[in-house]
Amino acid sequence: MKLPLVEQDLASCVSCGLCLPHCPTFRVTGEERYSPRGRIEAIRQVHIGNEPADASFIDMMDSCVQCRGCETACPSAVPFGRLMEAARQGLAEHTRYQPWYRRVGYRTLSHHRLVLVGSRLIALAQRLHLVPSRRLGLPDRLPLRATALRAVLAPAGAPRVWLHTGCVMDAWQRDVHSAALAVLRVMGVAVSLPKRTRAAGCCGALANHGGLVGIAREQAAATMRSFPGEDIVLVDSAGCGAQLKDVGHLLDTDDARRFSARVMDIHEWLAEHLDRLPPAPGPRPAHSVAVQDPCHLRHVQRAHLPVRRVLAPYLNLVELDDDGLCCGAGGAYSLLQPELAGQIRNRKLEAISHCGAAMVASANPGCSMHLAAAGLVVRHPVQLLAEALGLLDG
Amino acid sequence: MTRTTAVEPRLNDALVIELAACLSADRVHTDHLERALYGRDASLMRGDAGVVCFPRTTAEVQAAVRVALRHGRAIVPRGSGTGLAGGAVPVQQPVLIVTTKMVDVEVDLANRVAWVQPGVINLDLTRQLRPLGFHFAPDPSSQQSCSLGGNVANNSGGPHCLAYGVTSAHIVAIEVVLPDGELAMLGGLGADPDGYDLRGAFVGSEGCLGIATRIAVRLTPNPPAVNTLLADFVEPAHAAAAVSAIIAAGVVPAAIEMMDQRITQAVEAFVGAGYPTDAGAILLVEVDGLPSGVAAETAIIEQVCREQGARSVRIAADEAERMLLWKGRKTAFGAVARVKPNYYLHDTVVPRTKLLDVLQQVYAIAERHELIVMNVFHAGDGNLHPLLVFDAAEPGILERVHAAGEQIVRASLEAGGVLSGEHGIGLEKQSFMAWQFTQPDLDAQARLRDAFDPHARFNPGKVLPAGSRCGDLAHLDAQHRDRLLADGVWV
Lengths: 394, 491
Ligand SMILES: Cc1cc2nc3c(=O)[nH]c(=O)nc-3n(C[C@H](O)[C@H](O)[C@H](O)COP(=O)(O)OP(=O)(O)OC[C@H]3O[C@@H](n4cnc5c(N)ncnc54)[C@H](O)[C@@H]3O)c2cc1C
Ligand code: SF4
Ligand code: SF4
What we know:
The complex is a heterodimer. By secondary structure, chain A is an alpha/beta fold. Chain A has helices at residues 7-11, 24-29, 36-47, 55-62, 69-73, 80-94, 100-108, 112-127, 133-136, 168-172, 174-186, 205-209, 213-225, 238-245, 247-251, 254-262, 266-272, 295-300, 305-311, 333-336, 338-355, 365-372, 381-388, and strands at residues 160-164, 190-192, 232-235, 263-265, 288-292, 316-318, 359-362, 378-379. Chain A has 3 domains: 7-94, Fumarate Reductase Iron-sulfur Protein, Chain B, domain 2, CATH 1.10.1060; 112-272, no CATH class; 279-388, Rossmann fold, CATH 3.40.50. Chain A has 23 helices and 8 strands. In chain A, the strands form 2 sheets. Chain A has a 4-stranded parallel sheet. In chain A, strands 6-5-7-8 form a 4-stranded parallel sheet, sandwiched between helices. The radius of gyration of chain A is 21 Å and the shape is globular. The mean pLDDT of chain A is 89. A 7-stranded antiparallel sheet of chain B has the order 15-12-14-13-17-18-16, with helices on both faces. Chain B has a 5-stranded antiparallel sheet with strand order 5-6-10-8-9. In chain B, a hairpin with a 5-residue loop joins strand 8 (171-177) and strand 9. Chain B is globular and about 70 Å long. Chain B starts with 13 loop residues before the first helix and ends in a 7-residue tail after the last helix. The interface between A and B is large, with 34 and 43 residues. Flavin-adenine dinucleotide (FAD) sits between chains B (41-42, 76-84, 87-88, 99, 118, 140-142, 146-147, 149-151, 153-154, 156-158, 206-207, 211-212, 333-334, 422-424, 426, 459) and A (16-18).
């Protein structure tokens, strides 16, 4: 089966195996079929060698977390993410790889009201003990109500930014956005919030990872339109940020490329404006915080260091000794591949318990939910910052 | 290109059923696509893995070997598959025994050893030992991925083997499942175990004498101080002269690595370590030991390099910079794909005094065959790694690459060198064996192999070329190499 890929990308893998230990699924299985080198070879066999795209092939593709740890590890610069997206797109177009109900699910993310209502229904069911939250990887108690977010005004001449609020994150972790707004307010920054037009909100990352490129394009385009003008677009979810920075490539238009160039992970921006952050009002807390790098921040955006620059003045940070190996959350991965996701998470839990930290800072909603479901105390770096600045009381 | 026509193994084959009964059904794989993934290692060769097994224990390896024997199937051990000589490439649709699920480590500090299962990754072991103040000294550039079983089988070396010795110097004892399925302990923790040093014979045996299932590796104390220097030369000749001058000055650094301009440029694009991309060659030199000695040796090396014409000598300021400098060296093979998608290399060793001479011949050979060559190598012990980089899609290029490779091997042997410093012979270099060894030498090696594996079940067709045994009259000639390749393999 011909897959919509660039053959040069395939040829660039020299089969050296240096990526193997950086792949979470290889780490927990030791099997080539669950490794980057194996997956590339499988794609090559299907695309060039006429092997059928059978259940075995689909399993090799589906089991990939798309963490792209292999990309930062690969000395040959194999663009693995592109190859995997192409393989999944090919599968989605030519097979029943993505059943109708998943397609409907991804589309629903564009309708923010539905997302909010759905989330509240689950929250209610949780209160009535009707859903096994931990098994499904859901947060223990989804919020029943969330305070409305408000744009931040600032005098003329102040820096102006947008804050991307997203779909599921806005429903489940709106307090992260609130913390981000509180921090930006004390920094004297004007923050605008996107208008909720039809289909705007979801950046399209989940659909894109599932190979549903058409849906992803629609969602990305609508989201892009909700941020008119030239101001920087800040993103406090690593997965969404990675997707929005890639809209230029996904839509392949000048507008989209201009838009992508305006997107920044919020920590990147904060790290460039440290002088606007006030000193901590109280003494430095005694406990230490482990920094967990979301893959889409570390391996895709390659913007994990700013998190440290922003937090270090206020908190004792400790590093995990695992080369930034994925935690297994991977967007919808922990729902779709619970067994592998659990094994991968166990490795992460071990690394966290070695480092002796009391809590974990994670800049991606998926990772933080996945880790919290294992009983860890996980906060978004922006929440930790707001707390250190004394902005979260009351 | 030919591909094997042997029968497909099926789930209901007796072989597969029996293997599954010894291991478990989910650790015996026959899936067609998966077998293709296990058809190759980091070399250019390919084969068809008949049945892929993932044992966890010694007993499971023994059982799998016995089943394979009963069914008359060949057995090929495989670790991480980073071998560069096709050692783990399956021939004769074998039972492939993959060790990646055998990853237990037991540290025995009293005896200064760690007992490891063969699938443990080299760097993982060193990391695990770090809090105890030790490491495993052999550090192949593939250290982040390669397995200790593979290191033992290939007697692998690395930059730091200049001072510390290659793998064989760090292996105390090996538990081996022999080709008849019996278990043997080669070597031992005692100072000088009785009898022949079969441990020594097994290290470097490339999976032909049995499977290592537990390995006692020596623990090397971490040096209290380390310094890494990067010296930048306009002329490769000056860099080569500096290598000899450093050693002549009485310093034995832990490592001396040399990289030429092309490879430096390719690597710098990946690591951004600040390598000078306009240098004709760079040297990466490391010294370790007590702080006072390290300081003194650093000063000598810096001075020697400058005397030999180094434009600059940079000393890594901290551990992070040191790791970055090494990362460039250690990812060099992979980084060549930024220039062309394929590479082919030899790892001949030449006397240090002939280094420059052979290097110049290597450039000339590549030029004659209109190929790009990149050089990155263990300069301290004269172990060359001339990487011929090419695009296999270009018609006729493989022939040119092989011809150039052969001439490089010849030039090295003529300079008094040997065929392989560390990567092994495997499938790829066996036809060159007759260039280095006389017929009686080859015959002696064949007899050793026969003593372990009389039915030639283990990794058949590897290392020793057909014709090694006396009385076996096949004439060895490079032109006949293709005929010597086992069924189901293509280059
Ligand atoms: C980028 C790169 C850099 C490299 N740098 C170096 C270097 O600096 N120095 C160096 O020496 N090599 C180097 N190599 C080659 C290779 O990494 C080493 O030879 C390594 O030791 C192979 O280990 P492996 O686990 O990948 O073995 P594999 O490739 O899986 O197998 C290699 C051989 O060992 C046998 N084998 C594996 N496990 C066992 C076992 N348990 N018992 C018996 N036989 C077994 C196999 O049958 C095969 O013949 C490099 C390779 C790459 C890709
Ligand atoms: S993806 Fe990169 S690191 Fe992995 S085997 Fe291919 S070339 Fe090597
Ligand atoms: S993206 Fe992550 S899970 Fe997928 S092959 Fe690469 S390292 Fe493995």
